[in-house]
Design goal:
By secondary structure, the protein is of the alpha/beta class. Helices cover 41% and strands 25% of the residues.
Length: 312
């Protein structure tokens, strides 16, 4: 009977090869993992910086007392802007945050960057705005004095069906290319339709309210565009923020009333302004804007009558 001797050297070599393969695989895995994480971290940093740059692009849209301004933002890749709003933040006017991402490998969007605070601005849009070209325009919001500029962001093609001439003139004057006009609803095919007559569109404008599939948003003046292009959450949140700012500014004007009275100017505005402030504090949603608008118009008429003693 023959005894088979095992080749210890061969076994040792086989073990060394297996160990080398395992170790090499582990090192390769760790290298790929580290590289992926580095890329993701770098992307996230770039996206966060892009969000901050976007906020800076909103600054030139401040209108002063102008009727409105518009601009266009072009990206190299298909991009997403994420917006969130909080009207109950410790900040007196609430807060909005913006984040950014773009398409990367595999035609997928990268992980969005960190949320960046949008300070002292009121940006109306859907929760996610997607596209390579973003339309941005602003309108001043008065109630009765200027409260803020409202900024509207949109990337989708919209077709305004039978829009009033003043709206056509305003949009054409601003040069907003994502909004088209038609008096034939069939021409709106493939676009988001907005009806100013009838109610057969994706979005319908009826009696100071904008009606979408599952909600209604009430508006006054330039807030019409904000209601058309915003999600319900973003719109109602920003309305509350604007109302908070109105109340704070009203206190400033009430102090100004006392100053001009010491100089011999009389004003009949204070009591009405305080009443309007109470109405504003009681506002639960955009549904109460029309009532505030009526009070604001009365107060503004009184202010205009005072001429040299006007507050704004």
């Amino acid at each position: 009977m023959k005894m088979v001797r095992k080749n210890k050297k061969a076994i040792a070599m086989s073990f060394n090869w297996i160990f080398a393969l395992l170790a090499g695989g582990l090192i390769l895995f760790l290298a790929i993992y580290a590289t992926t994480k580095f890329i993701e971290t770098s992307e996230k940093t770039v996206y966060t910086e892009t969000s901050a740059q976007l906020i800076a692009l909103f600054d030139p849209l401040e209108t002063g007392l102008a009727s409105g301004r518009a601009d266009e933002i072009n990206f190299k890749k298909e991009s997403r802007i994420y917006l969130s709003c909080n009207s109950l933040d410790n900040h007196p006017f609430g807060k909005q945050k913006i984040a950014f991402s773009e398409k990367t490998f595999g035609d997928k969007f990268g992980e969005k960057g960190e949320n960046v605070n949008i300070k002292n601005k009121y940006v109306f849009a859907e929760n996610i705005v997607e596209g390579k070209k973003i339309s941005v325009f602003s309108k001043p919001f008065f109630m009765p004095f200027k409260v803020a500029d409202i900024i509207v962001i949109n990337s989708k093609e919209h077709c305004f069906y039978k829009a009033p001439n003043e709206i056509k003139d305003e949009i054409k004057g601003l040069g907003i290319e994502t909004i088209k006009f038609s008096d034939d609803l069939s021409n709106c095919s493939g676009q988001t339709s907005v009806c100013f007559v009838g109610s057969n569109c994706d979005i319908n404008v009826l009696n100071n309210k904008v009606v979408k599939k599952d909600y209604e948003l009430y508006y006054i003046d330039g807030l019409l565009y904000a209601a058309i292009f915003s999600s319900a959450e973003n719109y109602e949140c920003n309305i509350k923020r604007l109302i908070n700012k109105f109340n704070e500014l009203s206190l400033v004007y009430i102090d100004k009333i006392k100053i001009i009275e010491n100089k011999g100017c009389s004003s009949n505005i204070e009591s009405k302004l305080r009443t309007m402030m109470e109405s504003a504090k009681a506002l639960k949603s955009s549904n109460g804007l029309a009532g505030l608008k009526e009070q604001a118009d009365i107060i503004n008429a009184i202010n205009l009558d005072t001429r040299t003693c006007g507050l704004w």
